[in-house]
Specification:
It is a single chain. The protein is an alpha/beta fold. It contains nine helices and nine strands. The protein has a six-stranded mixed beta sheet with strand order 5-6-7-3-8-9, sandwiched between helices. It has a three-stranded antiparallel beta sheet with strand order 2-1-4. Pfam families: ABC_tran. GO terms for molecular function: ABC-type transporter activity; ATP binding; ATP hydrolysis activity. This is ABC transporter ATP-binding protein.
């Protein structure tokens, strides 16, 4: 697979800023990545979104475009078996980076190369709020490519892992707390092996028992799959789960390395 990824990079004619370790198997190469959001406003004073739209339609004010440079020249390589924590203050580009690796955001410059299919799991991952947890398990598993037989086989395991309140598996997800919804989403996503699993804050809402189960599941995924990326404000989860940490600051990599060293430097810098 390392050869396949190198060939994929070679086809584009890219000259990566990072050097691949020949003794390890790369699964994600992020090369000089820049992500830029373009935000449009009406250019008129305050008001609701509806009044802003009316001003645009009536041409009272021309829309103004503002660029937000969320990720700035990020480069790194993730290897098979890595569990990488991504930390940083709000607005540092953590979630944007995960979305770019998942292929949901196009680079303004640079590139992302992956060996396999990345899967992004976030607390707001789309499940059908009006459907029961049970129906969402079935739809989620089928959407991930599991067969009806595989879905049926994993159903009880997912329900047990999510550890919902009695009876709630048959209730609409709109009745779930944020923690219950996050646990069910993680349980569904973890029901299959992923080439690259990207987890955005999904462990932040669970209790200690759920976090222990999640850590064990991530360890299992690391052994059986490719790599895991984890964004969480709870640094204890990062330290216990990851073998490597990337610290983002204003869209740039501030530090990349051993979890204890990076977390210690981050805590000192942020006063935590």
């Amino acid at each position: 697979m390392a050869k396949a990824l190198k060939e994929k990079i070679a086809v584009t004619g890219a000259q990566p800023e990072v050097v691949i370790d020949p003794s390890r198997e790369p699964i994600v190469v992020v090369d000089g990545l820049h992500i830029v959001y373009r935000v449009y406003s009406s250019g008129g004073g305050k008001g609701t979104a509806a009044t802003a739209l009316l001003r645009i339609l009536r041409r009272q004010n021309r829309p103004q475009m503002k660029e937000v440079h969320a990720v700035r020249g990020v480069s790194f390589i993730a290897y098979r078996g890595d569990a990488i924590g991504v930390i940083g203050t709000n607005g540092s580009g953590k979630s944007t980076l995960l979305k770019a690796i998942a292929g949901l955001l196009p680079p303004a410059r640079g590139a992302v190369y992956t060996d396999g299919q990345p899967s992004l799991l976030g607390v707001n991952a789309a499940l059908m709020r009006d459907l029961s947890g049970s129906r969402n398990i079935i739809l989620g598993c089928l959407a991930m490519g599991l067969s009806p037989e595989e879905t049926k086989k994993r159903y009880d395991e997912i329900v047990k892992f999510a550890d919902l309140k009695p009876g709630f598996i048959d209730y609409p997800m709109s009745t779930y707390s944020s923690g219950m919804g996050a646990r069910l989403r993680f349980a569904i996503a973890a029901a299959r092996t992923h080439d690259v699993l990207l987890i955005d804050e999904a462990l932040a809402t669970g209790d200690a028992k759920f976090k222990r189960r999640s850590k064990a599941k991530i360890d299992e995924l690391r052994k059986n799959a490719g790599a895991v990326f984890l964004v969480a404000h709870n640094l204890d989860v990062i330290e216990e789960t990851c073998n490597r940490v990337i610290w983002l600051d204003e869209g740039r990599i501030k530090m990349d390395g051993d979890p204890q060293e990076v977390l210690a430097a981050y805590n000192e810098a942020t006063g935590k």
